[in-house]
Amino acid sequence: METTTTTTTAGRILAPIALGLLGLAVWQILVGVVGVSGYLLPTPMAIFSEAQQFSDSIVEAGLITGWNSLVGLVAGSLLGVVFAALAASLKPVHDMVNPFVAALAVIPIVALAPILNTMFGTTEFPRQAIAGLASFVPVFVSTLRGLRQTNPEHRDLMRSYAASGVQVFRTITLPTAVPYVFTGVRIASSLAVISALVAEYFGGPRGGLGGIISTAAASSQYPRAWAYVLASIVLGLLFYLTTLALERLANRSRAAAAG
Amino acid sequence: MSTPHTTSPAREQSPPAGDSAPAVAAAHIEKIFPTSGGEVHALSDISLSVRPGEFVSLIGPSGCGKSTLMRLIADLDQPSSGELQVFGKDARQARRDQDYGIAFQKAGLLPWRTVSDNIGLPLQLHGVSSAQRKARVQGLLEMVSLEDFGDHHPDQLSGGMQQRVAIARSLAEKPRLLLMDEPFGALDEMTRERMQTELLRICTETGASVVFVTHSIPEAVYLSDRVVVMSPRPGRISEVVDMELEDPAARGDDLREDASYFRMITAVREALHGGAPSGRGVETR
Which of A254, B82, B191, B224 is a Cys-bridge partner for B160, taking CB atoms 3.0 to 4.6 Å apart? Predict the structure, then answer.
């Protein structure tokens, strides 16, 4: 029984790794042996050696972009939770806020980058603001949904205890919503990184991953651009996996919440 | 409907205030739910009195309003007309005074709280100090034989254990009235019988009145002093059957094989089927 489980888990992890390695091998052969232009598409080996050579500045750039994403994610999530709580408890707030969130959800937020860059000049603030706006929407939507999931038995029970509104909110509404908040944060984490990164393409200080990718690509240093793209993928994964772990943690003792 | 052990639904309707007041006194209750497809007449002319310490079951087919009646007593819904008093006060006041404990078909435990914190929930909400709460919860855990599970979370318990936690929670504030809506409905037969015996023991210990909603005839007979038989569309009381059995405190598994028990089951079944032909020629006493 236990060995079966271990084998399955190992298989689940090994299978995609094997596929990835196979893909890299095919890539390497296509460019290195078959003769696709190495100038347009560098080989994986070239990209890795570039990444190694510039590892210090890659980490530095990753920290800048990562910090912008993190500030945006945290600020956007906090705002999302606060507004969702207000919208869930006060009907007028819900009616006021909802159309704006719907509008925010359909606006390509990165489109604001050039404007914000002009407004705030040479600071990192525009990137953080964009990451924050992008994070706000999924956290707000998911939290609001979570705040409406209270179980009818729990509501009846709280009424039978003659509990006050604040007690009901603290005792059942909020704890029921917590896993939904973290689901929102997980979805927001990828958006925050993408937004902070892409916002760097549109001017402002050049230190982050996005800035260097666009500079390197503009000066035809493709292996270097690819090396920074690789770093962006790692950064995105880091955010995703961290928030996924948080979500799992929040869900651990709540598996029976629906029952 | 004139077998010796049945009484007419409208009985003893003068609830005086004070300690001698009946646990529940309902007079001519009507409940109408407005729906998109017109009005649904859920309860019609319900009159019922439950004495302090009495165990009364409400039984009837789905849609007869037995759960609705219990929700009215709990002030989770309000009657459309009629008078409803709990210990001589109106139902709303009784709810505010925490005069009753309640348990539903689903245990309704808060999954993010431990068993102890679930049982202590009503005490916590009503500002009982944590030391007192701890002592009370410990006593309740012993009462439902879950001493070793106080620190567990509900999802680590079986259905029967969860239901016992819910019953312990309903007893936390030593209510004089217990309202139970099919609390054993989701349990397997063996667990169910054990829980019934435990419930009788707990009721004897606490002296609480119980209004117990069920659709199981044997369950109603085994537990009750009186069984209120209801019929649907609109929900009304068709008969009240007195259980002529030994005192609830003395009931045990032996009773389930006793002739008197089967006689009562027959009596309730006949009342449920509204005096079907099979009931006519049979001498039930």
Answer: B191
